[in-house]
Amino acid sequence: MSKYIVKNNGALHGTVRISGAKNAALPIMAAALLSDGVCVLDDIPDLRDVSNMIDIINHLGGSVKQLHKNSYEFFCGNINDFSAPYETANKLRASFLVMGPLIAKYGYTKIPLPGGCPIGSRPVDLHLKGFAALGADVSLEHGYAEVKAKRLHGANIYLDFPSVGATENIMMAACLADGQTVIANSAVEPEIVDLANFLNLMGAEITGAGTDSIKISGVKSLLGGNYTIIPDRIEAGTFMIAAAITGGKVRLENVVCDHLKPLSAKLREIGIKAEEGGSSVTVSCENPLHSCDIKTLPFPGFPTDMQAQLCALMSTVSGTSIITETVFENRFMHIGELQRMGAKIKLDGRTAVIDGTSLTGAEVRATDLRAGAALCLAGLCADGVTSVSGTEYVERGYEDFAGKLTSLGADIQLT
Ligand code: UD1
Question: Which residue segments constitute the domains of the chain, with CATH numbers given?
Answer without folding.
Answer: 3-19+231-414 (3.65.10.10), 22-228 (3.65.10.10)
